[in-house]
Amino acid sequence: MNSRYWLLAGALMLVPAAWSAPLYGDVNGNGVIDFKDAVVLLRVAGGLRPDTDSVRRTGDVAPLRDYNGGSFGDGKIDILDALRVFRKAGGLSTAEWPAKFTAFVLEQDNTFVLRKYGVNGAAVTGPDQDVPDVAETISGPITDLVGGTAVPGVYVIKPVNGIEEHMLQVLDGTNTPASLQATQLVFGGNATTFNPPLIVAQYPFQDGVTWFGQTTVTDVVSGLQFPATYAGTVQGPVVVTTADQTHAFDNAWRVTITYSTAFPGPSGTEYYWFVPFLGPVQHGYSRTIFLQTTTINPDYKLVNANIHGVLYP
Predict the structure, then answer these.
(1) What DSSP designation does 123 have?
(2) Spatial distance between the Cα atoms of 141 and 162, rounded to a whole number of angstroms
């Protein structure tokens, strides 16, 4: 995700409400899975009701393709989805629902497409440009070596012909998401490592959540090191749109990171917006280096994401 200097645009993750998986099957939004949801899906499958984004995201629970991998859905609503919800509502399904819960999009083979923007606010990639939108693929997990310490469970986020970024999902003792960390991001166009890993998000996402940290950033090419301090906060929910302006999300969370390194390293602010289930849909930043400030907001917006084999939005 092409973060600027050393912060976080590559922090791809699913952000479910209340830090459990989204309530798959609750297509009418009343907070429970019941027969009313199955009826909605039957009507959608029969063409009597539109197949909207919100219905598809919560109601596309079939087929169950890889239970251990948490993979399910096929990007559309049909009779199989209605039957799974009917069985769940009637107590006939006792398995994890609808599959193993996945809290983040940090999963092998998930893909994302981003549209990049310049300082004047105009798109620099996309259908009206000579440069295509940026496609990224996730692989892993791998074990990173950070400051001589082996860090397992790291996922690699790599754009085509670009510099890869390394993200780590951290769970607490109850297997609940606790934080999102980075062992490597893009820093001034070069790969940069962090020791200890940089905390790029702290959960749960609630308005006013804050965190603080210190790390040492190392430019992989030159070997230059900068001590850094940073602080993060969460605001929201807020409204954001995708790059083509056709999908608006009113349940995004804005995460802000302020950071400072020793001179002549950069200081500044990063902003990114997370949408439940999709992950980061927009990013921007303001940074100062050698007394020169650059601000781009946004520098990318989401075009689409392929999660569990389902294309969003």
Answers:
(1) B
(2) 19
